[in-house]
Specification:
The complex is a heterodimer. The longest helix of chain A has about 35 residues. Chain A contains 14 helices and no strands. Chain B has a single domain, classed as Rossmann fold (3-Layer(aba) Sandwich), CATH 3.40.50.300. The longest helix of chain B is centred in the middle third of the chain and has 14 residues. Classes of the chains: A mainly alpha, B alpha/beta. The interface between A and B is medium-sized, with 26 and 35 residues.
Chain lengths: ~325, ~260
């Protein structure tokens, strides 16, 4: 990938992102005029009194969350794929989703209502799953990432089984709430979500950019990275923890949105390049772009109803992957 | 430069290396030879600090190896081994640039001097014209030269080569060894081929079952009686008259 191509692709993606963000403010159940949106954004008084509330309290935080969630998941996927040299690594691989599901289930079914928020429950559950996986894998020094993946699968099944058991005996309304929540949606987010996700996403991105040479060195082999002075075990542990934390934050705010972290890095590698800086920045922009449009689609396809985001991303992601595998370009 | 004194290594209950002592001067190309399982690779791994010796000590530039930090070691010692081609498509320049790592702090960008270093290294191994090509397009010999370029970017005081000519065609085997000899960096190389060792090494270390059988100039080490004892085959050592280099020919007895 040549430098010129990269710069051009980046410029195009950023412009597309900005354009999409502006356009998306006009997507939603209420119809607002473009002049009102411009007025609200520039701090003037709009004609419709509702416009200000809709933009500031609903659409803007949702839009920013879409940007952060898309960027965060894509960055996490890219970091994990490069750090493990495994193009199938995905931020949900530590059993995070199953853990979040169990946390959400416990909070909404077992605990008295409104005692703990579902988001907090999901966050704790996700961290619990990560802790389990890390405890199992601590002995093998992070040399073999496959073991971590397998431990994640096992932990996933275990925690899902417990969730299913609880949900089976739960009252249908509470069970439905958990199940729909797990399908992923940006409708529950607010400014608090933005304030949580923005610094965490930014910190993980900065950390990965700071460690870009180390990450690049891992692309050849562990031995070769060690001869360059990289402590591969410590590097991997730091990166795994950082992405697990970021993903847990994302899951706690908007449920399960699968395949973004798996799919976006593949597309970005193709158009932007393989080395860390290009891949990470590309993933941040393209991931955000992708999530904005998935959310727009989710809100507009059916009248008066939202499709869960996870449904769309899983469908798109799995088809994408089957196509790649058929063309054997994985 | 490099000095090993009475170094021994045990892995489990097995003694892999026993009482190895030799030293390398500033301008020497030293080859390590011996049959499979002689401990050649283990010895290199000790010097790379992938393994720690059970007794004895290793000094690099008059300083104990154990007292180097990871990054300090990477600035003093570069390693080229048989590495598979990268999984993701990297360019030649990107792989060579990896050699800057030990010289750079977290947020430090590559400056024009660094880019010059990378270009210089690629030129030394004759790959500058392929700088923007993907590594998948390189031949085995070119890939090995690229890893040598990456090692040069590290600006090491000592270059370790672990079987650098394995799986390469004859012309590339000579090319790689000629190249590494011409670099003005002392080289310590594990070599399989005794004739390559005779041709390119200033000194040779002969290992057998973890013990040091001989260390010295090729003429002192490549003696028929010693080689027959170590490799288990009768052999002849002759002087190749035009090259003025020793040549080892093994003469196995016919099987039938």
């Amino acid at each position: 990938m040549l430098k010129k191509h990269y710069a051009l692709a980046m410029l195009l993606a950023v412009l597309l992102l900005l354009f999409s963000m502006l356009l998306s403010l006009n997507v939603g159940s209420a119809t607002l005029s473009v002049s009102d949106i411009v007025k609200v954004l520039s701090g003037q008084v709009p004609q419709s009194a509702l416009a200000e509330t809709i933009i500031w309290q609903i659409r803007l935080p949702r839009l920013l969350c879409a940007v952060l969630v898309g960027a965060g998941l894509a960055i996490s996927g890219a970091i994990l794929q490069n750090a493990s040299r495994n193009p199938l690594a995905d931020p949900y691989l530590f059993g995070l989703m199953a853990g979040a599901g169990l946390g959400a289930t416990l909070v909404s079914v077992v605990l008295p209502p409104q005692m703990v928020s579902m988001a907090l429950g999901a966050f704790c559950g996700a961290l619990f799953a990560v802790a389990l996986v890390f405890m199992v894998c601590a002995g093998q020094n992070w040399r073999r990432i496959e073991i971590t993946l397998l431990a994640g699968v096992a932990v996933s099944f275990m925690l899902s089984a417990i969730s299913s058991f609880i949900l089976y005996f739960a009252e249908p309304f509470a069970a439905n709430r958990v199940i729909f929540w797990l399908m992923g949606s940006l409708s529950p987010v607010n400014w608090h979500s933005v304030l949580l996700l923005a610094p965490v996403t930014l910190l993980v991105l900065l950390l990965a950019l700071a460690l870009r040479r180390q990450l690049d060195a891992l692309l050849l082999s562990d031995d070769s990275a060690r001869t360059l002075g990289v402590n591969t075990q410590r590097l991997r542990l730091v990166l795994l923890l950082a992405t697990a934390l970021l993903t847990a934050c994302i899951v706690s705010q908007c449920g399960g949105i699968a395949f973004v972290g798996l799919m976006i890095p593949h597309i970005v590698r193709h158009f932007f390049g393989v080395t860390s800086v290009r891949l990470l920045l590309g993933c941040a922009v393209v991931g955000a772009l992708f999530m904005i449009w998935v959310d727009n689609l989710a809100r507009t396809v059916l009248p008066q109803q939202e499709i869960p985001l996870g449904v769309i991303t899983s469908l798109a992601g799995s088809i994408f992957f089957l196509l790649i595998m058929r063309r054997q370009r994985l | 430069m490099l000095k090993l004194s009475a170094v021994s290594l045990q892995l489990g209950t097995q003694t892999v290396l026993h009482n190895i002592s030799f030293s390398q001067q500033h301008d020497e190309f030293i080859g390590i030879i011996g049959p499979n399982g002689a401990g050649k690779s283990s010895l290199l791994r000790l010097i790379q600090r992938e393994l720690a010796p059970d007794s004895g000590n290793i000094m690099l530039r008059q300083r104990a190896l154990a007292r180097y930090s990871n990054l300090e070691l990477a600035k003093s010692l570069a390693v080229v081994s048989q590495t598979a081609p990268p999984l993701f498509s990297l360019t030649v320049e990107q792989v060579a640039t990896m050699g800057l790592l030990p010289h750079k702090s977290w947020f430090e960008l590559s400056n024009s001097h660094d880019k010059h270093q990378v270009a210089l290294a690629l030129q030394q191994v004759g790959l500058l014209h392929k700088a923007s090509q993907l590594t998948d397009t390189l031949s085995g010999g070119e890939l090995q030269r690229l890893y040598i370029a990456r090692a040069l970017v590290q600006q090491p005081a000592l270059l370790l080569l672990d079987e650098p000519t394995n799986h390469l065609d004859v012309q590339y085997q000579h090319q790689i060894l000629q190249l590494t000899r011409s670099l003005a960096i002392p080289v310590l190389a594990c070599l399989h081929d005794l004739n390559l060792a005779a041709m390119y090494c200033d000194k040779i270390l002969l290992l057998n079952k973890g013990r040091q059988c001989a260390f010295g100039a090729p003429a002192e080490v490549l003696r028929p009686d010693m080689l027959q004892e170590v490799f288990g085959l009768p052999c002849e050592v002759n002087m190749q008259s035009r090259l003025r280099k020793l040549q080892v020919t093994f003469m196995p007895e016919p099987v039938c």
